[in-house]
C-alpha cells in the first residue's frame, strides 16, 4: 500500500521479501534514470535485505554500477578498515565486493584518520564537490538518529566527529560480543549534508521503530529527535514493513 502523509510518501509492505524488493526498487529506479547517480549508503541491520536484492539483480545482468558514485553516511572512530565491525568492512561484505562499483567512486569516512577534524572537513568538501547526493538511503535509530546525528540541543550541519548516544550503543551491542566492545565515537555526515540530497529513502523493517517513526512524521521538529527534520524535505520516501508502520497509520485510520 502507498500513502501520502504530510510530506512523506509511505510504502508499506506485508512481507520481509516484498519489503527487500521494494526498497531495492527505489535504488534501481535511480540508477536506471542516471547510471552515474550519486548515492548515499547506510549500514546497520536494516538495509542488508535491500542490498542482497541489488546483488541478485546485478548477477542477473539487470544492473550496472560502474558509473555510480557512493558516499557512506558514517563510520565508527577510531576503527581499522579490516575490523569486521567497521562500516568499510560492512559495505564490502554486504554490497561492494559483489558488484561492479568502481573503488575510485566509493567514499566512506576514514575511521583510521589521524586528524579527525581534518577528515571531517575533507569528507564534507568531497560531498560538496560532488554537488551532494541524488539519493540518500537512511535507516533510523530507536532514538530517532539519522546517520550518527544523535539527539542534541542543536542540529549539527556538516560532517563531524561525535559521541554515540547510550541508546545507540545499546542498540548496536547486538553486533558485538559485549556492549563494552561497541565504539563510543564516530564520524558522521551532518543534517545539512543529508538534507542536501535530492531524494531521501528511509528504510525500516522492525516493529521496534514504530513509535520513533510516528514521532518523525507527526512530532515537533527538534534536534532531540533528529529524524524529525525530514519533515522539511520535499522528497522523502519511506519503505516500511507493516509492523513498523502501525504508529504512523494509526493517525489516518
Ligand atoms: P539498524 O540501525 O538498521 O541496525 O536498526 C539503524 C540506525 O541506527 O540508523
What is the CA-atom radius of gyration, in angstroms? 17 Å
The major beta sheet can be summarized as: 8 strands, mixed
Shape: globular
- Low-pLDDT windows of residues: none
Strand order of the largest sheet: 1-2-11-10-7-3-4-6
Our count of helices gives: 8
- Tell me the strand percentage band: 15-25%
Structural class: alpha/beta
Number of beta strands: 11
> What pattern of helices and strands is seen along the backbone?
EEHEHEEHEHEEHEHEHEH
Mean pLDDT: 98
Percent helix: 25-40%
Ions and ligands: 2-phosphoglycolic acid
Task: Report, as a whole number of angstroms, the end-to-end distance.
Answer: 14 Å
Structure description:
The protein is an alpha/beta fold. It contains 8 helices and 11 strands. It has an 8-stranded mixed β-sheet with strand order 1-2-11-10-7-3-4-6, sandwiched between helices. Helix 2 links the parallel strand 3 and strand 4. The model has no long low-confidence stretch (mean pLDDT 98). The site of 2-phosphoglycolic acid (PGA) has 6 residues, from loops.
Nutshell version of this structure?
The chain has 253 residues and is α/β, with parallel strands linked by helices. The chain contains 8 helices and 11 strands. Strands 1-2-11-10-7-3-4-6 form an 8-stranded mixed β-sheet, sandwiched between helices. The chain has a 3-stranded antiparallel β-sheet with strand order 5-9-8, with helices on one face.
Secondary structure topology:
Elements (H helix, E strand, L loop, with lengths): L1 E4 L2 E6 L2 H18 L4 E4 L6 H12 L9 E4 L1 E3 L10 H8 L11 E2 L8 H15 L4 E4 L21 E4 L2 H7 L12 E4 L2 H5 L3 E6 L5 H9 L17 E6 H8 L4
Parallel strand pairs: 2-11, 3-4, 3-7, 4-6, 7-10, 10-11
Antiparallel strand pairs: 1-2, 5-9, 8-9
Helix pairs in contact: 1-2, 7-8
The protein binds 2-phosphoglycolic acid (PGA).
